[in-house]
Structure formats: C-alpha cells, structure tokens
Amino acid sequence: MALSTTARPIPPAPARPGRRGPLRDLDRSADAFASLGPNWFASVMGTGIVATAAATLPFQWPGLRGFGTAIWVLAAAWLLVLTGAWIVHWARYREAALGHARNPVMVQFYGAPPMALLTVGAGALLLGPGLIGAHAALLIDAVLWPLGTLAGLASSVAVPYLMFTRPRAAPDAAFGGWLMPVVPPMVSAATGALLVPHLPAGQPRLTLLLACYAMFGISLIASVVVITQLWQRLVRHSVGPAAMVPTLWIVLGPLGQSITAAGLLGGAARLALPFPYGAAFQAFAVVYGVPVWGFAVLWAALATAITVRTARAHLPFSLTWWSFTFPVGTLVTGTTALALHTGSGVFRWAAAGLYLVLVAAWAVVSVRTVAGAWRGSLLRGAPPAVPADNDVAPADGPGLAADGPVVPADGVPELTLTGDGLASRPA
User: Is 419 part of any domain?
Assistant: First the structure.
C-alpha cells in the first residue's frame, strides 16, 4: 500500500496589526532561526556569480571590476552571516533541521551550501588580489575549494541515495531542484581549474586536473538523467505549482557551468598534459561547448515563456526566485569561455547581454529578499501539511513499510516563502 500525501493549500499567516519594524511577521524575534533551510545559500550563489561573471566578462567596462569586487565582498560577508545563522538553527532547532533532510523538496537544496563556498572561493581568486593581496586570496580559495568540493561530493551521493531508498516519487514529481545536489561537482570542476596554475608542475597539477575532469563527468551524466526526467514531466504532465516554476531555470546551471568548466579546464590542460592531450582538451571546450550552448539557449527560451505565462496569472515570490540568478550567471561565464576560445564576436556580445540580464534579475530578487527577511515573512515557518483525505491508494508493492509513501504527483510539493511547507496549487 502507498499513502497519498497530497496536501491542502497552506492558509496564509494571520495578520498582526499594529506591529512595525523588523521581523514583524514573526511571533518572536528568536523564531528567525527556526526555519532556516539550506535553500537560503542560493542567495550567496546568486550574489557571488554576479561578481565572478564580472571578473571574466569579455568587455571590461569602466568600473566593472570595482563593482564585481564590491559584490564579491557582499557575497563573502553574507556567506559568513548565513553560516553563523545556520549553526544557530542546527543548535537550537535540531528537529527542524533534521526535518529538512526528510522533506523531499528541501533535501535537494543541500547542494546549495557547497556551491556557495565554491563561488565565494572563486571570487576570491579572481577579484581578491586587488583588495586583500594575491597570497590571502589564494589562501581563501585553498580553504573554501576543498570544503565545497567535499561537501558537494557528499550531497551528490547522499541526496540521490535518500531519493532511492526513502519515499517513492510519483512519475510526475521531477522538478528543477533535483539538479541541485548533483551540480556541485561541476562547480568544483570549473573553479578547480583556476587553482591548477597555482600548483607545482608535474603530479600535483595533473592530479587536480584529472580530478576536475572526473567531477565534470559525475555531474554531467547525472544532470542529463535528471533533465531527461524533467523534460518528460513537462511533456506528459502539468508545469506544476506556480512557486516551483522558477526552478525550471536551474537547468541552465549544469549546462552553463559545464561549458564554463570545459573552457577553463581546456585552458589549464596544456599546463598538465603532454601533447596531443592538452590540445585535445582545449579543442573539446569548443566541440562540446557550442552545441550545449545552443541547447541552453533553447531551454532559456522555454523557461522564459513558461515563466511569463505563469506570471500573467500569479507568480508568488519565494526563495526559488534565486533560480533566476546563478543558472543565468553560469550561462554568462560559459558564453565568455566560448568567446575566449573561438574569438567570436557573437559570443562576446551575447555574454555582455546576458550579464545585464543577470544583474537586473539579481537586483530584483535581492531587494525582494531583503524586504521579506526584514519583515520576517521569508523566515516564517509554515505549518505542517494537512492530508486532504485519509484514503489509502493501492500500490504495486507488498506494503507501506517496504515501499514507503508515494510523493504526490501534479502538485510537486510547493515551496512556501521559506521552502518548508507543502501545498498543492498547480500553476
């Protein structure tokens, strides 16, 4: 037997007239830490990619590097604040923190903290030398890259394992967030390429380069599997809850980041591999990157059309809106890498145009996130989902204990403002 867990929509929080100032939507100020999930680290990723993309953009407009450096400092500071707040969350609200790992939606976002570490570390290497010195910048990345890589490899194993062995997902349960735990190794591959020149020639460089290509493969193949399931869901079932629509943009993450990684690793390959392998990997950056870039543009067009269609009805703000930032940023860096390897003016201008889109999206999402955090609405925990009925649906398996409950289909659990709650409001 399999228990249906379809939930009724979560009622809005009761108004609190007369309260003003910060955290006015919370019962107590201390509740700000109660529902702090790993999805918050997507805001560090989205901020950090604005900085790193600025550092490598083909057109270095006046003031661009200073802007990128300021954004990197902001991302680094926010990472420190958020990490401290998450430690408090785990210390004071351990059951809620463990509940995130049991939530079929929230658990996917355990890939966000590793990518936040990797993004800030890459920013240190690209933008930090002018501010804190080359040695300090390298030291920061030398600490953050291993931490982010180990955590990312852990998420790429642990989260799929939980999905394979915990409650069974319905055929139409796939959503863009399924990519979050498997993308970190690709980010490690791209950012690890920046460290190759800083290692001694010989085995150290070769080992890091080959490890990065191995992580490239881990993430690429896993992402293709997930993207295929997501495409199947969109063709055979509905788009899903409105609040989940922004997660469609996450698909651009592994696509753009893989183009970036192929480009950066191709450039580093000649430092570690003998001829003809170094040249072959450099050629691979273009042979692989251009076709994947074409599919990324196709997906961006589809995601834009679906997002506009949903927004015309209603697209509620939530932390999933950060999906409009980091994935687009990886497409910027990937396009920049193709411009560097091909010398194409089309890619140069495309990178510049996409970067403007990225900055606009980041500005909108950042302002709304700050406003929601100030009020406390983004920090408010959602009440648990209430089953719509007590019906028990038949299943193929022999029993509930053996098979586990089925995660509902069409209303893939909707993220509330914090991402905790489950609701079933299709778009």
Answer: no
- Report helix angle 326-342 to 42-56, nearest 10: 20
How is residue 129 written in tokens? 């030398």
What pLDDT band is residue 19 in, cutting at 50, 70 and 90?
Answer: low
Q: How many domains does the chain have?
A: 1
- The Cα 174–Cα 165 span in angstroms is 16
Q: What is the pTM of this model?
A: 0.86
Q: How far apart are CA 25 and CA 12, in angstroms?
A: 11
CATH code, domain carrying 241? 1.50.10.150
How does pLDDT run across 113-132, given as a tens digit for each residue? 999 999 999 999 999 999 99
* Domain, as residue range, for 116: 32-156+163-380
Question: Within a domain: residue 198?
Answer: yes
Give domain status of residue 26, yes or no: no
Which residue type occupies 377? Answer: S
- Please report, for residues 109, 179, 246, the alpha-carbon distance to residue 315 in angstroms, rounded to integers and kept in the order given: 21, 22, 9
Residue 237 lies in a domain: yes
Task: Read off the pLDDT of residues 238-287 as tens digits, 9 standing for 90 and up.
Answer: 888 898 999 999 999 999 999 999 999 999 999 999 989 999 999 999 99
